[in-house]
């Protein structure tokens, strides 16, 4: 009688949790450039549209009389002079907006990526903090011992509340990728989660080929 | 492209902020010193005199407009092309995302193809959707060689737990002359 309800209410939170972990793991793959890309495209489109419209106006597409008028049209100057304070306030608002958007964008682009420390539950009066580099180096050192892995590098990413791990593995040419990933999950990450007291740690793995294992191009 | 965007983003942001600061300074200075027609930092009174006497159809206007449009187009292209080109591999658990670069897949495919005896060189181009192999042999190529190369590539792709299997295109080129 209760089976459908129990199933529905039990699996939904698990699915949500799995989806959240998957999303965090995908976010950990690399630093997001979405904001930079969107702003670059928007600014580019504005410049492109303005340039094309002015070029068409200059070549007389909108009429030769319009093309013959001065850039600073007396009609516009008269409109400014009719209500100077309004236009000054508009100009100041535009300037402040440019400053805010520009500085926010520049600061966001230049800010180094966060490396959150891992805080262990040490009881009510104790906080045990494992530094991000210590946690990441321990995982990388263990991952580098897996068969087929030549080198490994790891770093913590994300926030203090939602940490994730980004790990790069340099594999030998003949490495069994499935086995390496399975052992990474079962041996390295499981041990890391247990020792850090984390229920789950989203991980983004980047696979590269170990350049030292490449055969010589000329023999 | 991604590196170019990383370089351009702070520069454009700082340029926007500098332009905003100049606008605010000039407007406030012009408002406060209403009887002065000279700019505080920017010589806008000279610019104003120039654009009052310049019409839209005069020479520099169209050239500058085209240059602005080209810069805009380049920015749009940089923004659109600055995507990560990665090949996704199925991880052993949902909380593990595994990616690799097309270069890695190309190198693995190339190594596997070059191991076939008749082939003396192979060039491989890989993307998340397609793997193209151009294999070169000396002299007359065995008619079965193309299918042998394809079988080797398919075998490798079966071994890799790729999230999305790319299409495989194989061509065999015959090289004539002395070896």
Essential attributes:
heterodimer; A: 219 residues; alpha+beta; 3-stranded mixed beta sheet; two-stranded antiparallel sheet; 7 helices; elongated; B: 179 residues; two-stranded antiparallel ribbon; 5 strands
How does this structure look, described?
The complex is a heterodimer of chains A (219) and B (179). In chain A, the strands form two sheets. Chain A has a three-stranded mixed β-sheet with strand order 3-4-5. Chain A starts with a helix and ends in a 10-residue tail after the last strand. Chain A is elongated and about 75 Å long. Chain A has seven helices and five strands, in the order H-H-H-H-H-E-E-H-E-E-H-E. In chain A, a hairpin with a 4-residue loop joins strand 3 and strand 4. Chain A is an alpha+beta fold. The longest helix of chain A has 27 residues, at 84-110. Chain A has helices spanning 3-27, 34-58, 64-67, 74-82, 84-110, 132-143, 177-196; strands at 118-121, 127-130, 149-158, 163-171, 203-209. By secondary structure, chain B is α+β, with helices and mostly antiparallel strands. Helices cover 51% and strands 19% of the residues of chain B. Chain B contains five helices and five strands; from the N terminus they run H-H-H-E-E-H-E-E-H-E. Chain B has helices spanning 2-32, 44-52, 59-81, 102-114, 145-159; strands at 87-89, 96-100, 119-126, 130-138, 167-175. Chain B has a three-stranded mixed β-sheet. In chain B, helix 4 (102-114) packs across helix 5 (145-159). Chain B is elongated. Strand 5 of chain A pairs parallel with strand 2 (96-100) of chain B.
